[in-house]
Amino acid sequence: MTRGAVRSRRGAASGSGETAKIAPRRRGLAPVIDADARVLILGSFPSEASLAARQYYAHPRNHFWPILGTVLNEPLVELPYADRLSRIRAHRLAIWDTIVACERAGSLDAAIRSAERGEVAQVRRIARELRAVCFNGHTAGQARGAWAEAGYETLVLPSTSPAYTRPFAEKLAAWRELRRFLEER
Fold this sequence. Notes:
Elements: E1 25-27, E2 39-43, H1 48-53, H2 64-72, H3 81-90, E3 93-97, E4 99-103, E5 113-117, H4 120-126, E6 132-136, H5 138-141, H6 144-149, E7 153-157, H7 168-175, H8 178-183
Parallel strand pairs: 2-3, 2-6, 6-7
Antiparallel strand pairs: 1-4, 4-5
Helix pairs in contact: 2-7
């Protein structure tokens, strides 16, 4: 990843061929990352529900917390948000997004325009023990190359978004691969 904004080449057009109004520019959430983090989970950009709540994966139908809770054997869904973050930090996990600011109407990744990417160097300065970066979905996974070039092991996982209709059990099976990064010494 490079400094500055990465501009999308796709225009913001409506189905009728007319140019649509540009959506408001939004900033994402601050990274949840500690110095001893071993694994970083990167989403694309927070949903409208997450931005309003100022919480990662706040949409009630998003599978992130149920899947991660099962993988970690922690009751994450039942906990208040601050406690969820404490538990994931105890497992040396970190959460952030590949896009830190963008223009977007609604919550769909396909609506993202004028994306500004987070910087690998910023994470490297904070989390010196980081070994692996996992991407929550295809859009986040588009940043895989930059993280792999920086020397991190990478894994693109199926999106936990309710818009991605793959069955929960299939998503969970893929996400279990995350454990190997946490168990490595």
